[in-house]
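Q: Okay, next protein. This is DUF72 domain-containing protein from Gemmatirosa kalamazoonensis. I've checked the sequence twice, so it should be correct. Can you predict the 3D structure?
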Amino acid sequence: MPGRAWIGISGYDYKPWRGRFYPDELPARRWLEYASRKFDSVELNGTFYSLKSPAVFERWASEVPDDFVFAVKGGRFITHNLKLRNAESSLGNFFASGVLALGAKTGPFLWQLPGTYRFDAERMDAFMAMLPRTAREAESVALWHDERLRRGALVEAPADVPFRHAFEVRHPSYFHDEFYAILRAHGYAFVVADTAGKFPYAEEVTADFVYVRLHGSQVLYASGYTDAELDAWAGKIRAWQHGGADVYVYFDNDAKVHAPFDAERLGARVGTRDSGLGTRNG
């Protein structure tokens, strides 16, 4: 059975998008609502920079349609400061910060590692083993939280849903079979990341889903995608789908407001949207 595709944007709260993607008269508090009618998924990247609160996640969930999903970027304190070691309480803080409020709107979790961090098989395997595979497992992880959660903790999930995890790596030492084998053993995805050649590239499928981040093909975060490039990505997505994988694609080339329009154009090619008008096709 073919997989499903979700195509959206990495983040939605960008002031330069006002008057270009977001209507001038639309208040910023309604930007997520607007974006969620254009796309069926958004990658939450604010969760990378700081812990949010249950009230924030509850608001996010309330503003989007029932069949919308959020990808959630893991905290940089875990990935960049701790470099995945001694992360129990920090993982507890992350999952207790309100993530569980997303319920059935929970998409994959993105764990992005810094480009300076070399592959360490034992460290990667141990961290992956700690990650919850369901919302019920996440309830247990959330109980590891500490006093750093100053705006409340949510340790009960409204629904038990499966959790997916994906890893975006940038150091060349990860691009080999040993790392791919660890991902496969845990059922986690290797992130296919187009970074304008700044970091290594591979298209390894290691799970029942594929996670794609499009940062720009020519200039990191700033260049748009040509029709030919989007045609090529549409072909890759269809091939992964026909192979049975679900596919999540997020455009991160936001600097010059290319991301939302490229996402609409790719969505029209793949069939997740009808020419960017925001109408769901099923």
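A: Here is a summary of the prediction. Residues 5-270 form a domain with the TIM Barrel fold (CATH 3.20.20.410). DSSP finds ten helices and eight strands in the chain.
Q: Noted. On to the next one.
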